[in-house]
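Chapter summary example.
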Amino acid sequence: MNILQLGNNILRGTSEKIPENEIVSAQTRELIKKMSEALHKEPQGIGLAAVQIGVPKSVFIVSEYVFNPSSYAGKESEEEIKKRKETEKYAVFINPRIIKLSKKKALLSEGCLSVAGKFGRVKRSINVTVEAYDENGRMFKRGAGGLLAQVLQHEYDHLNGILFVDKVEKIDK
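The structure predicted for these 173 residues follows.
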């Protein structure tokens, strides 16, 4: 499954919510599986929205690795990344809504699998609360800070046709 790149109009559309009676469907499970397989192949990838694989549905996944700030403290070698990716699991966010953003923001470095090779600094809220359904149809609320807050906002933007390059204040490369 290829990840769509900047210039593909599908990335600029608004993703459709999944009807509640379809959240636990075989079709939704298959979508999550395809997303997981696509992200699994990307050594630097830590999040992916369904629209990035050409399916404009309101779903994104985030590597569980990002939920543990201490695990993200240093640079990983290629071998360490490869080993982690072998067993990596993903948290699923279906029909997510950002219900709270902190007023305090930080300028943070970002990249995107749909904007290959580009990195830049984006101003993001340092804390966020998201409400969503998981893959079992259970509604949950998740508060986050640090890298996880950044990733949740980045992936949520994808669902609204927004890419990090639209918000970038400074291109790093």
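To summarize the output: The chain has one domain: 9-171.
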